[in-house]
Amino acid sequence: MAEEKIYFEEGDVKVTNARFLTYGKMHSMANVTSVAKYVVKPKRTGPIVLGIIGLICFAFKWWLAVLLLAGAVAWWMTQKNNYIVSLASSSGNQEALSSTDEAFIDRVVNALNDAIAERG
Length: 120
Description:
The protein has 120 residues and is α+β, with helices and mostly antiparallel strands. 40% of the residues lie in helices and 35% in strands.
């Protein structure tokens, strides 16, 4: 049997020519036909509503308005996009990994594509 070739290994995530290990879950690379990266943007309703309330408060208490607007901006800034690795196989699509670190997800997707391309 051929030796398992490692394409990516970082923390609890590992991509080889035979397996894709993600935080204790194993996916067989033999079944994977393609890989895709998806972006899930955070819901911004909460910070927007808080900001509108802050603007309304300028008519009553300016210090409260400033406090609410600062909170809305901080809330908005702390929300991050979530990046998802999706594996396609004959049995359908499966979300295999997610992270707010886009560079990490890009490295995983590239390694998975390399493993699929080498398999042929």
